[in-house]
Each structure stands twice: as C-alpha cells, then as structure tokens.
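We close this part of the discussion by returning to an individual protein. In the encoding step, the backbone of a single protein was reduced to a row of integers, each denoting a local shape. The sequence in question and its structure tokens are set out directly beneath this paragraph.
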Amino acid sequence: MDVKKTIKQCCCPPNNITRIEDDEKGLHVDIHRGLFASNTEKNTITNNTTAATNTLNNNVNWYDELLSNVRWHRVKYKSSRFQKDCTTPCYTAFYGGRAEYSPYIPIPQWFQPLIDEVNSHLGDHVQFNAFLLRLYFDGNDEIAWHTDGRTFLGEKPTIASLSLGCKATFQMRRMTNVWPCVNGSINTSSSNSTTNTNATAAAAGVDASTPIQSFTLHDGDLLVMRGDTQKHWHHCVPKEKGRGVRLNINFRYVLPGQDAERGQMTYYKYMVFGDVPIDQQPPSWTYDEIVSRKGGMMNFVQKGVKCHGSKRERQQQQQKQELSTRKRRESNNNDNNTAASSSSGDNAESDIQRYLTSEQSVDREVFMSLPTDIRD
C-alpha cells in the first residue's frame, strides 16, 4: 500500500499531511495533522513542522465552543436489523441536510465559521451541508464498524472527519461486501484455524487478506475519505481504556433527489430522535449536565491526566481543587486522635477501592498518582 506524505495546495504545512492513494484496494485518505488544534495541544506537538504554523485564521477553540453550545442526545430506538432495543454507543447531534426535507435542524450561527474554514481548506470542489457530531465521553464510548456510503451522498462521496480533544484510534478494514448480512462481525472464538478464521471473515464480508489500517487521531486532525473508499472500506472508533473526552464532527453532502428525503430522515432518527416522534422534543443534555450524570471525579481523572483539557475543564478542575482544599482544612481543625486517623485511613482506602471497582475505565495507577487533595 502506498502511504506517503505529499504536497497539496492548502493552508496546512506540506509535511503535516498524510495521504494514502491505493487504487487497487480502493483506499483514498488524507489526514491533515493539527489543523484545528487548540493552543494547548499545539504546544505539545514536537513534529519538525508543528500544527502551530498553519495559516488558518483559527482563533476559535472549537473544542470549547462545541462543549459550550451543543445539546447532546443518547438515542434509543428499536432496531429492525438486530430485533432488539438499542442505544447509540456515544452521544450525538445533527445539523443541516436539505432544508426542503423534514426533519431539519438549521445550522447554528456559531457553527458556520467552522464549516467555512473546512470548506476553504479543502477547496471549492468540496461542499458540505450535513453535519454529524459525536461526543465520546470516555473510553467506553465507541462507534462500530460501518461505511458512510449512501446513495443520497453520491457515487464517490467526500467525507471529512474532524477530531477535537483527546487522541483516539481510528481503524479501517477492507470489505468484499460493505453491507454484510446481520452485523458484519468476525467471530473467531470457535476455532484457531486460519482457514476457518478466513472463512468466517469472508462470510462477514471482510477481506481478511488485507491488513487493518490503524491511525491515531489527535486534537485538530482532519481526516478526509475520498473516491471509492466507502465502497470498499469500513471504519470504526473502538473502546480504549483511559481515553478522555473526544469530539468528532463528520462533514457530508446530501444530494437532491428522491432518496435524499428518506436518507435525511434516517440521519435524524439515529442521531437525534430515535423512536421519539419528530414533532416532539427528544431528550438532550449539555456537556455540563452529562458530566454531572457521569460523575465529576471519573471525568477529571481521564481528561486531566490523559488529555490536554480545555479552558472550561481546567476551570472545573481548579474549582474542585479549591473545594477539596477547604474541606481538608476544615477536617484538620477537628481534634482527631491517632486511632480515629487510622480508622479514617482504612475507610479512605475502602472508598478508593469501591470507586475504582465501580469505574473500571479509570486506571488505578493514574488515579493514585493524583495529589491527595484532588482524590478526596
């Protein structure tokens, strides 16, 4: 497979673009590194040419902007394919599509500058009008193997995918059939035989002769899939222990035509409404509400240590530290004897163990490396 860095007429430095062009395998991918990285993340990049040198007028911290403005959905629906009740494996939102079809949520004014920046960077030949947003709150959130190809997106759609926040693994696997029966999974537990494994993969539509492609996407990376990619490849974002908050914006273009109305309705069903009638308001939450629902300490451990964090998150962490410090000072004013202190230490260890048991995505070593006043 021909994987190389190439020069392209755009704002990103040439050696910050990774391009894959493989006509034989039908894989056409560009990764524009650090294009929309926050200032904090830019300072951590040590490549020869850093993302900080890009010439985008990128004064907006889009990570903070999305966390402040988006209302997120955790969609519930009855799957006709799997014949069971399902919940989306991450938080989602959706804007745009074609205004003549229903449902349609207009593109927010605060979001339009990001669209303009991406369009300007990729060139006039690329257009987008439909935007799928995902919030991966922690390493338990994921998106399974799938293709973005749809008839109402055209024969060779350009799909752009912007990553913000913590780094994540993005995988691609070649398919002999991108629409396999049932779920397209590979179950190799029944046998260690290479022949049986390949047969199982083939039955699921997977090209077992082609290695899986795996990329690490960092804050501000823009991945673009072009040409025949959606006809031949699936992609996924797997679960990852210890991963902090990551946002993803998926840019697509819905073409006019008979199939577009059905397609747009499908997008809104699985990203916003689920089984809620479209004339009713589906459940949604702000990021701060999700943090409260999830539990502040788990959120702090994963983002504060594993990820660069945003201005909002750093403020939250500072507030937690200040609150914890006040509590500790108040506790120190109490006249505790040695026995009580020992008992308190035992209870604290028990509390830590119960917490780590309940929050299995939190690494004990990372948690215990935090200052005591933050762990309290």
